[in-house]
Design brief:
Layout: E1 4-8, E2 18-23, H1 32-41, H2 43-50, E3 60-64, E4 72-77, H3 88-105, E5 110-113, H4 125-142, E6 148-153, H5 156-166
Parallel strand pairs: 1-6, 2-4, 2-5, 5-6
Antiparallel strand pairs: 3-4
Helix pairs in contact: 3-4, 4-5
The protein binds adenosine-5'-diphosphate.
Length: about 170
């Protein structure tokens, strides 16, 4: 449990090995946390992303962090919420697991996640937090790296929600 931390605020400010971006399938930037990450990282991030050729929902890709304090950005594409019967929970879970696998491969020790899919993509926050916490806990049971995961809560209601699942 000491491998999971909750932080309130802006993910682009964190000095960690990797921050996770809630990207879209083009990986060419967007609104919300994606826009904030690209603004803070600078245009070199977009250039590197152009070379990746997109990313399917549930998968993840890694780039450098450029002007961010974080060394790397792991871009993952969350599912759009369509009511819950279109494989949304499995796809959201896959986002967390594929991001963690990439971090492990690169021997990254600290990785920060936003609440993937809970903004424009409309995934209910309670349900998304449950998937996020469970995926990370299960990964930790079988892997020693990364050492630490930080859940970044940008909205006040997510602070309450994550706290309740982590207790
Ligand atoms: P999605 O398209 O996956 O729903 P959004 O960026 O719209 O992605 O929202 C995902 C979550 O990220 C939301 O909970 C939103 O409040 C949060 N968020 C937005 N900006 C930031 C930021 N700078 N740092 C951390 N979280 C953020």
């Amino acid at each position: 449990m000491d491998r999971i931390e909750l932080v309130i605020g802006d993910i682009t400010m964190l000095h960690v090995d990797a921050i996770v971006n809630a990207a879209n399938r083009t990986l060419l930037g967007g609104g919300g946390v994606d826009g904030a990450i690209h603004r803070a990282a600078g245009t070199s991030l977009l250039e590197e992303c152009r070379g990746l050729g997109g990313c399917p929902t549930g998968e993840a890709r890694i780039t450098k962090g450029y002007h961010l304090p974080a060394k790397y950005v792991i871009h993952t594409v969350g599912p759009v919420w369509h009511g819950g019967n279109q494989n949304e929970p499995a796809l959201l879970r896959a986002c967390y697991l594929s991001s963690l696998r990439l971090a492990e491969e690169k021997r990254l020790q600290t990785i920060a996640f936003p609440a993937i899919s809970t903004g424009v993509y409309g995934y209910p926050k309670e349900k998304a937090a449950q998937v996020a916490v469970q995926a990370v806990k299960e990964f930790f049971e079988a892997h020693t790296e990364p050492e630490k995961v930080i859940f970044v809560c940008y909205d006040e209601d997510n602070v309450q929600i994550y706290s309740s699942y982590l207790d």
